[in-house]
Amino acid sequence: MEFWESSFIDKQTMWGFEPTDSAILTNEFFLEKKIKDILIPGIGYGRNAKVFIENGIDVTGIEISKTAINLARQSGIDSRIFHGSVNDMPFDNKLYDGIFSHALIHLLNKQDREKFIKDCYHQLKPNGYMVFTTVSKKAPMFGKGKQLDKDYFEIMAGVKMYFYDSDSIKQDFGNYGLVELSEIDEPNKNMKDKPSINFLMVICKKEL
Q1: pLDDT, block means (10 residues), the chain with 208 residues
Q2: Cβ atoms of residues 52 and 100 within 8 Å
Q3: Cβ atoms within 10 A of the Cβ of 103, count?
Q4: For residue 180, what are the contacts with CB-CB under 8 A and spacing of at least 6?
């Protein structure tokens, strides 16, 4: 294996293979709502997909990194995964019971965030739910690096992040069935010495 590929895999899997607390909570919520099939934009190497699959929920993914998709396959995930950017959604005409997107939307610029939310909402069945997690302004990275726009920073070379608060959540999700907003501190389960990161969990419902 080439060195760059090995380094890329190390970076891809730096969060370990345990699901996030957000995924665990969302799985419980989806089971309660009797959700049978979900779309996971930004499925990555599949660490969050497994908790849904293991509980009988059908998963379809979208992932821009071919290497991450290969890692997901190596870890036993045989769900359908579209190779491409969420900016190019939709990849199919299917409507899903649920959508789960962890730590993705804050990596998009304003225009792409708006399109992403709208595209996800359009792929929900009536009475379906979509759950997003995103970093909040309470996260330790907020305000670091070069400011590009209001609450939008290039925190390191090539890594641009938008930081949400309750007002901006209501602004972006208010027209898409926003029903719940909560805070969750996500521990780094693979590096116990690293501080947890404050996330916002957003739940929306598509009404009939």
Answers
A1: 34 64 97 98 95 97 95 94 97 97 96 98 98 95 94 93 97 97 80 74 94
A2: yes
A3: 20
A4: 201, 202, 203
Residue with tokens 């029903």: 179
Instruction: Please give the Cα distance from 189 to 199 (Å, whole number).
Output: 15
Tell if the pTM clears 0.85, that is, is over it: yes
- Is residue 198 a contact partner of residue 183, using CB atoms and an 8 Å limit? yes
Query: Within the chain, what is the greatest distance between any pair of CA atoms?
Result: 52
- The string of DSSP letters for the chain reads --HHHHHHHHHHTTT-SSPPHHHHHHHHHHHHTT--EEEEET-TTSTTHHHHHTTT-EEEEEES-HHHHHHHHHTT--SEEEES-GGG--SSS--EEEEEEES-GGGS-HHHHHHHHHHHHHTEEEEEEEEEEEEBTTSTTTT-SEEEETTEEEEETTEEEE-B-HHHHHHHHTTTTEEEEEEEEE--TT-TTSPPEEEEEEEEE---
What are the C-alpha distances in Å from 53 to residues 7, 17, 45?
28, 14, 14
